């Protein structure tokens, strides 16, 4: 793994965005795997700025998102489709037809089939952007005795529900399940860029960057086996995890 340590969370977002911009400049028809969540949120404005400044053209990319809550209406402001549309697809001039965000409303087996088609029917993901959960999840692959390779429905960890309750009126409103790429799907991306910040990510980042263990109990540790994974963290987190 390559580790980029920046001065601040803002600089981490800029660095992660630069990885994506470089990818699309090199290969304009890149297929990008995208993440939502609080950490990834500030990466997208850098992509939009680069687009507006004419530094990068996203018109030929295709995108696949990592996950969505089960039961979530794609039109809801809390859906990951809405998140992506307002933070990236709309402002960067990306045709919605070239994007896929799983629907939490469709019949599970139909959506899993569609997700697999979107992931594998033409080409593999060139670059996958990731955040990481306090539970150690990537996508919504939660810790357990074993992990799932392919697209599946995952029961969310209590710590994930607690962490994500900040995006809802109350913890009871947080969906309890999600449809997610599996660990195997994530690991098939040519390149992975993970961004992390915050005190609550210290134990997970210590497991990823300092300890020499790979464990299903901290799914992000699987990234140690990836041939081209870049971890972007700020100096504060790097010091605490070091
Ligand atoms: C989001 C996703 C999740 C988040 C993770 C971190 O699409 O797949 O793995 O990246 O839950 O979320 P934040 O950044 O809000 O702590």
From TrEMBL:
Source taxon at top rank: Bacteria
GO BP, sorted A to Z: carbohydrate metabolic process; glucosamine catabolic process; N-acetylglucosamine catabolic process; N-acetylneuraminate catabolic process
Gene Ontology molecular-function annotations: glucosamine-6-phosphate deaminase activity; identical protein binding
Any one cellular-component term (Gene Ontology): cytoplasm
Organism: Anaerostipes caccae (strain DSM 14662 / CCUG 47493 / JCM 13470 / NCIMB 13811 / L1-92)
Name the UniProt record assigns to this protein: Glucosamine-6-phosphate deaminase
Domain Glucosamine/galactosamine-6-phosphate isomerase: 13-230
Range within the parent protein: 62 to 303 of 306
Keyword check for Kinase: no
Keywords, alphabetical: Carbohydrate metabolism, Hydrolase
């Amino acid at each position: 793994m390559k580790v980029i340590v920046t001065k601040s969370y803002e600089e981490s977002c800029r660095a992660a965005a630069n990885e994506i911009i470089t990818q699309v400049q090199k290969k304009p028809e890149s297929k990008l795997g995208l993440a939502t969540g609080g950490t990834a949120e500030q990466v997208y404005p850098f992509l939009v700025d680069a687009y507006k400044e004419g530094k990068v053209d996203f018109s030929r990319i295709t995108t696949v998102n990592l996950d969505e809550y089960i039961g979530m209406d794609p039109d809801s402001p809390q859906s990951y489709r809405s998140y992506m549309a307002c933070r990236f697809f709309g402002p960067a001039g990306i045709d919605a037809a070239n994007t896929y965000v799983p629907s939490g409303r469709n019949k599970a087996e139909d959506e899993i089939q569609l997700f697999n088609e979107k992931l594998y029917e033409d080409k593999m993901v060139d670059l996958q952007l990731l955040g990481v959960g306090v539970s150690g999840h990537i996508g919504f692959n939660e810790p357990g005795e074993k992990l799932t390779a392919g697209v599946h429905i995952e029961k969310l960890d209590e710590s994930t529900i607690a962490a994500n309750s900040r995006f809802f009126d109350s913890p009871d409103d947080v969906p309890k399940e999600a449809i997610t790429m599996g660990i195997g799907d994530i690991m098939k991306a040519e390149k992975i860029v993970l961004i992390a910040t915050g005190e609550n990510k210290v134990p997970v980042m210590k497991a990823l960057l300092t300890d020499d263990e790979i464990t299903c109990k901290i799914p992000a540790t699987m990234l140690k086996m990836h041939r081209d994974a870049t971890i972007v963290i700020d100096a504060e987190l790097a010091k605490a995890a070091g």
